[in-house]
Write a structure and sequence with these properties.
Elements lengths: L5 H30 L1 E6 L14 H7 L7 E3 L8 E3 L7 E2 L5 E5 L22 H12 L18 H7 L9 E5 L2 E5 L7 H4 L10 H7 L13 E2 L10 E6 L32 E6 L3 H9 L5 E3 L5 H6 E2 L2 E2 L1 H4 L3 E6 L3 E7 L4 H4 L2 H10 L2 H9 L4 E2 L23 H10 L11 E6 L2 H15 L5 E6 L1 H11 L4 E7 L6 H8 L11 H11 L4 H18 L2 E3 L1 E2 L2 E6 L2 E2 L15 E2 L1 H7 L2
Helix pairs in contact: 11-13, 16-17, 17-18
Length: 584
């Protein structure tokens, strides 16, 4: 019989111990990489989680962890591609573009909740979308984004007269448990984007009836995460956990070239982490301190803020911060920063030369340098580059030209500013906004235009713009809701979206024509024509297209900030071992 010497026994024991340590460490690393807690930060408190009541990106991000719609966007493809989410496939659309037939996935369940018999979530059905769409146009709910559905679905206007949720609607039918049919009042090629939006997320009737007015604090969806204790509006820390009944949904297996490294996660079941903790921190400096200490993983940067300008140089994070395990996420955004004219004031509505003079007196390049360290894109008109196809040239009267601006001012009837009244520019009270407004005022002073800056708290500014319509000028940023240009151009045709109160009959006709054209390439040509018209007539002064900026820890994997309205949280993983090493 073979024997092992004492020394051999010790050697074998040592090997076994080392293997055990390696296995435990490797297993721990794997668990940390894919099953850890991720902590992020939002900038503003949110007022509930009812999808139809959401108005800001923070609310949409958090609520999209819980609720889902028929369609969403592919996480890793660029340009963005709409893909099925709760639907089995893309909708079947009738030849006249009016009837959308959507098959619903089987085996999708609402999260367990006390609103259901026995507390067990039931299966999602087509009727849930019928109920949810009706809620959007119910006048008692005062839905902020109701215009995306209101008037577009056949029979919904008549239904609003009764508000009987059991009453059938001609254009909104559950043909069976897994087939939803929507009939539009007119062709709308952009309707597929509406079906990705938060207002069309599936909500169970049981939850709405069970919780009543408190439904906004008791979310019940089909999504990857849940809030088992409900939502507390006063909470400064929100704890989301992985939904144990979430359907089989997997990390993408295709990507744009710039995201190919993320395919290391291809095919893994989503979500990639067990828990998400979201901190509500309204001030930027405390957010920055928390991520430096490793207490949170992802924080937003206020693009153009004093902090962002001190930690970023040449579109890169300063080396000392990178050495501390921090990374910069910076990407183009579908947004435009706008100095708005209120065309209720005849000074602007009847004097295109004045508007052109002020546009050409505004030094956008220096503005980009001072407030964004060149991270923004100088605006040539309203469309951000990621939404426009013809952005290679500067459209007149854009470009900084003091002499030309003075010539326009003289044509406007105010040579060297003589006889021109003081123009008030309303903005938010925070220093970043006031500084931007002051910069604008200094630019205008160079041609003799006297601009007085007025600061407001945000609700007061919004009230001035939307309710009182009492500003002369105001500073706002408009971000698109979906990736087609009509959504951005709508701020010119809709008097209230930016508070422009602008009227251009020919523009409105052309935009309406473009919006219903079934050919995408033809629509794009019309959008470019509209974009050039906006640039030439200057209904507002378009400053820059600000970037999206975040700081995140080195251990965070697959982070891409959502464009428009799809959440990124279920795709994100974290490797705490890598994160710990970066802080050593």
């Amino acid at each position: 019989m073979a024997t092992i010497s004492k020394g051999g026994m010790l050697y074998l024991l040592a090997i076994l111990i080392l293997v055990s340590i390696f296995y435990k460490k490797h297993r721990k690393t794997q668990m940390l990489a894919h099953c850890a807690v991720i902590e992020n930060v939002i900038e503003h408190p949110i007022d509930g989680t009812d999808p139809i009541r959401l108005t800001d990106s923070d609310s949409i991000q958090l609520t999209s962890r819980i609720y889902e719609g028929l369609y969403t966007y592919h996480y890793l493809k660029r340009p963005l591609e709409v893909i099925p989410n709760l639907a089995e496939g893309m909708p079947t659309v009738s030849p006249d573009g009016l009837v959308y037939t959507c098959k619903i996935k089987k085996g999708v369940f609402f999260q367990d909740n006390a609103c259901f018999p026995g507390g067990k979530g039931r299966e999602l059905k087509a009727a849930d979308f019928v109920f949810s769409f009706k809620r959007v146009v119910d006048p008692s709910h005062m839905v902020p984004y109701a215009e995306f559905i209101d008037g577009k679905i056949k029979g919904l206007d008549q239904w609003k007269k009764s508000l009987d949720y059991d009453q059938a609607v001609e254009g909104l039918k559950a043909l069976d448990d897994y087939t939803l049919q929507i009939t539009l009042t007119a062709p709308c090629p952009q309707f597929i984007y509406v079906l990705t939006m938060w207002i069309t997320y599936a909500v169970p009737k049981e939850a709405v009836m069970h919780y009543g007015n408190e439904f906004k604090n008791h979310p019940v969806g089909t999504g990857p995460f849940s809030l088992p204790k409900g939502f507390n509006p006063q909470a400064k820390k929100l704890k989301f956990i992985k939904n144990p009944t979430y359907r089989d949904n997997f990390f993408p297996t295709e990507s744009a070239p710039e995201y190919s490294h993320m395919l290391a996660y291809a095919g893994k079941k989503l979500p990639l982490c067990e828990k998400l903790i979201t901190h509500v921190i309204t001030e930027e400096q405390p957010r920055w301190l928390k991520i430096q200490k490793g207490e949170v993983d992802i924080v937003p940067l206020e693009s153009g803020s004093a902090l962002s300008l001190t930690i970023i140089q040449g579109n890169k994070l300063l080396p000392k911060h990178a050495a501390n395990g921090l990374q910069l996420y910076q990407a183009p955004n579908a947004a435009t920063e706008v100095f708005c004219f209120n065309h209720k004031n005849e000074l602007f509505s009847k004097n295109e030369f004045l508007r052109k003079a002020m546009s050409m007196a505004f030094d956008r390049d220096s503005y980009n340098q001072v407030f964004y360290s060149y991270a923004a894109t100088v605006a040539k008109s309203i469309l951000p580059p990621i939404m426009a196809t013809n952005t290679h040239r500067m459209m007149a009267p854009y470009g900084y030209n003091i002499e030309q601006a003075k010539a326009y001012l003289a044509k406007a009837g105010y040579p060297e500013g003589k006889g021109l009244p003081v123009i008030t520019l309303d903005t938010r009270v925070e220093s970043t906004y006031k500084n931007k407004a002051d910069f604008f005022a200094k630019c205008m002073a160079r041609i003799g235009v006297n601009v007085k800056v007025v600061t407001n708290i945000w609700p007061e500014l919004l009230n001035k713009i939307q309710v009182k319509q009492s500003t002369m000028m105001h500073l706002l940023t408009w971000a698109a809701d979906y990736p087609e240009a009509d959504n951005m151009l709508a701020v010119i045709s809709n008097k209230n979206l930016l508070g422009l109160q602008y009227e251009d009959v020919e523009f409105n006709k052309l935009l309406a024509k473009a919006a219903i054209n079934p050919d995408l390439n033809q629509r794009r040509l019309l959008y470019e024509e509209l974009n050039e018209r906006v640039a030439q007539t200057v209904p507002a002064i378009f400053a820059v297209h600000p970037p999206t900026q975040f700081i995140y820890r080195k251990g965070i994997k697959n982070f891409i900030y959502k464009l428009f309205n799809f959440t990124s949280d279920q795709y994100i993983a974290v490797d705490r071992v890598a994160d710990a090493k970066s802080m050593q």
